[in-house]
UniProtKB/TrEMBL annotation:
Listed Gene3D superfamilies: 3.30.300.20, P-loop containing nucleotide triphosphate hydrolases
Record's keyword terms, sorted: GTP-binding, Nucleotide-binding, Repeat, Ribosome biogenesis
Residues annotated for GTP 2 binding in this entry: 240-247, 287-291, 352-355
PROSITE patterns listed in its UniProt record: G_ENGA
Function: GTPase that plays an essential role in the late steps of ribosome biogenesis.
Domain of life, per lineage: Bacteria
Similarity field: Belongs to the TRAFAC class TrmE-Era-EngA-EngB-Septin-like GTPase superfamily. EngA (Der) GTPase family.
Any one GO MF annotation of this record: GTP binding
A GO biological process held by the record: ribosome biogenesis
Keyword NADP attached: no
Protein's recorded name: GTPase Der
Length: 497
């Protein structure tokens, strides 16, 4: 997980989970800033880079509504560029897409939610799946209605979801291109969501007033979805393909039949929270529905279940990924692991049904792990049997190891000593007659660990991966993804006025 931050800051990483400015200490922070000044970095640039990499989570604004009301056009207007695909027919947007936006000096995430293909998904199921997940994950919602058409039965269904969720809502009456259309927008008061804001997403009319209303309801920093209660139970999400044994494993660690287990794949539909005593501690385990294939290709309840599983991962601290060791590691297994990594969660990989493996299968499984899962060699591994209880005692130590790595912070002085030795021993390759150097760095946050490195030139992706490997060798970080951002020093005399 790496990002290159250019001098204008345009590619700053979004979604970091924690940055404690005071963790550096006043003296250490002053020394760090002095070093930055000596290397020719603008102090505001340095502080901005650290904040971008290590800020608390940006507030999330979900844009919801039925197909073809102009959601993606509105999202493009919010973010100031044509990013979301727009076409004059329903169902163009299928998957949820997240962008970073800024208005009146405040940054936030915008989630563009998709419509559906009516011949694949029933209207009620698709609206519930897309809208409910987007609403659940958001801090506030913009509900887009076509003012020319007026409120439809589908709009009314979304209103019921919004009321049930209890999230702040800004009602956007789109396609109001002039004063004559404002009368149409006024009819939307009948939805009971407050004042409808007349907007033309296509031409930009009224969007500023609507965004002002958004900032009034959008928090500066949303509440953490985990770790808020000191000493409270840690949240563990059990994820994997259908029928790999997630429910069986939950029942085994609980010591009783807590959830339904059936040989038919897909028994579990909604995430099931269970408080379980294990290893002398109380944990909150979440048994999730199996993720079958790409979300937009799923039908009805399966589609809904996959979105609910994604929401459970977002709220968890550790993802325990179950893989059926008796079968070949699939693309789907890899995609599920990627989902947990991209969510920034600590991770443990549990190979289930280990008791059914013969020596030949174990040999080939090890080869598959080397070739297919080389990108997550840092994740603790346990070989278990949910049926017999084999090696269940190893699960808690693996989870604790992953959590420890997820929360690890490296002091700035120690990090820079490490970077100095690393760059001296293994300098960046010369490209175009130049050899960029890592000048200094700091850890901007944890959960997961996030680093900002300051460099004299562009750092290639391969060298950033090398730095990540060496960081793991030196400091551990077992069981957690790492994010590395690079801030490139501006050429002297080229600073923006």
């Amino acid at each position: 997980m790496n990002d290159q931050i250019q001098p204008d800051g345009s590619d700053a990483y979004e979604g970091a989970h924690e940055y404690d400015h005071g963790a550096l200490g006043d003296a250490e922070y002053a020394e760090f800033m002095e070093l930055a000044a000596e290397e020719g970095f603008d102090i505001e640039d340095v502080e901005g880079a650290i904040e971008a990499a290590g800020h608390g989570p940006l507030p999330v604004l979900a844009v919801v509504g039925r197909p073809n009301v102009g959601k993606s056009t509105l999202v493009n207007r919010m973010i100031g560029r044509r990013e979301a695909v727009v076409e004059d027919r329903p169902g163009v947007t299928r998957d949820r897409v997240t962008y970073e936006a800024e208005w009146a000096g405040r940054r936030f995430k915008v989630v563009d939610t998709g419509g559906w293909e009516q011949d694949v998904l029933g209207i009620d199921a698709s609206v519930a799946a897309q809208a409910e997940y987007a609403i659940e994950a958001a801090d506030a919602v913009v509900f887009v209605v076509d003012a020319k058409v007026g409120a439809t039965d589908t709009d009314e269904a979304v209103v019921r979801l919004l009321r049930k969720a209890g999230k702040p809502v800004v009602l956007c009456a789109n396609k109001v291109d002039g004063p004559s259309g404002e009368a149409d927008a006024a009819y939307l008061w009948n939805l009971g969501l407050g004042e409808p804001h007349p907007v033309s997403a296509l031409h930009g009319r009224g969007t500023g007033d609507m965004l002002d209303a958004v900032l009034e309801v959008l928090p500066n920093a949303p509440e953490q979805s985990f770790g808020t209660a000191i000493g409270g139970p840690r949240r563990i999400a059990l994820i994997g393909r259908p029928n790999v044994g997630k429910s069986s494993l939950l029942n085994k660690v609980a010591g009783e039949e807590r959830v339904v287990v059936n040989e038919m794949a897909g028994t579990t539909r909604d995430p099931v929270d269970e408080m379980i005593e294990l290893g002398g501690k109380t944990w909150k385990f979440v048994d999730t529905a199996g993720i079958r294939k790409r979300v937009h290709l799923q039908q009805g309840a399966d589609y809904y279940a996959s979105l609910r599983t994604a929401a459970a991962v977002e709220k968890a601290e550790v993802a325990v990924v179950l893989i059926d060791a008796s079968e070949n590691i699939s693309v789907q297994d890899q995609r599920i692991i990627t989902m947990a990594v991209e969510a920034g969660r600590a991770m443990v990989i549990a190979y289930n049904k280990w008791d059914t493996l013969d020596e030949e299968r174990r040999y080939y499984l090890e080869r598959e792990i080397e070739t297919e899962l080389g990108q997550v060699v840092w994740a603790p591994r346990v070989n278990v049997s949910a049926r017999t209880g084999r090696h269940m005692e190893k699960l808690v130590p693996a989870i604790e190891t992953a959590l420890a790595g997820w929360e690890t912070r490296v002091p700035t002085g120690r990090l820079n000593a490490f970077l100095g030795e690393l760059v001296s021993a293994h300098p960046h390759p010369v490209r175009g007659g130049k050899q960029p150097r890592i000048l200094f760095g700091t850890q901007a946050g944890t959960k997961p660990p996030r680093f900002v490195l300051f460099a004299s030139g562009f750092i290639e992706a391969g060298y950033r991966r090398f730095i990540e490997r060496r960081l793991r060798e030196e400091f551990g970080f077992e069981g957690t993804p790492i994010h590395i951002s690079v801030r490139v020093r501006e050429k002297r005399g080229a600073k923006k006025k």
